[in-house]
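Put briefly, the fold is written as integer tokens. One such record reads:
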Amino acid sequence: MEKPRPVTASSNKAIALAAVVIIILLIPVRGDAAPLLRLGDYGDSVTQLQNMLLYAGFDPGPIDGIFGPRTQRATMNFQRSAGLVVDGIVGPLTWNALERVSGVSRGTGPLRGRTIVIDPGHGGPEPGAISYWGDKEKDFTLGIASKLRRYLEEQGAVVVMTRYGDYSPGSDWLPRPDELLARVSIANSRGADLFLSIHINAYPKDPSVSGVMGFYRAGSWESQQLAKTLATNVAASTGLRHIDNQVGPYYVLNNTYMPAALMEIGFMTNWNDVNLLRQDWFQDAVAKGLARGVREFLVR
């Protein structure tokens, strides 16, 4: 029988390095922070790309961490199917599209097996409401949505966002659709269990108005309950007043197939609300309230 080899400092380093590599491979690549990859590149990021392509149904060849002709061909085929520019170069838009297609649940919590679409309102050339002090609605909605995504994923959900950065949903598709149609298409194509659109309200006629409002699809009891549950939890987590819930004549509510709600969190015309929305802790409180509302609605 072969004698076990003594553990040395060099072997400890090798084990530590192997552990780091494994951890890197298990962490999903975020589109907005992912590296730009092209033919001839190699390394852990290419391995991650190859695994995502394979999961999405596009054969990249051996999972070897080498961006060769087969991986390039698989990338171009994926880009073509996703309506992207077919150049074989993996930039932020291709990473984001791959993430939408190949997202898997990474947790074991109460929301495991559920797919939730978060829709940060506005984006790109459309800022949404602008406060008297220059704040843009699109920045607040993305900040809250990104925090909410993390909390939902920690509970096991598969989370898809209609945008991951400051751009209009669908701007990476060819031909480019209307951005509202793109938001709806992302939700419907994933067969989501729930759709949540995040916005910040505005009421110039009375800058003193403050609070939370929920909107839902007309004729849908489930959407009405979702909006009520979300608004109640956000009010409880932030201290904002729960104004009411109303039928919302909004495209994203009326054209999605799953329970859907649009939340208006605070007012861009109210100084106190805007000042709160600028604070990281407050955005986090909003996200926690929304996450609790989602769990309360889905786990019944």
Summary: Residues 1-7, 15-33 have pLDDT under 50 and may be disordered. Residues 26-98 form a domain with the Muramoyl-pentapeptide Carboxypeptidase; domain 1 fold (CATH 1.10.101.10). The chain has two domains: 26-98, 107-298.
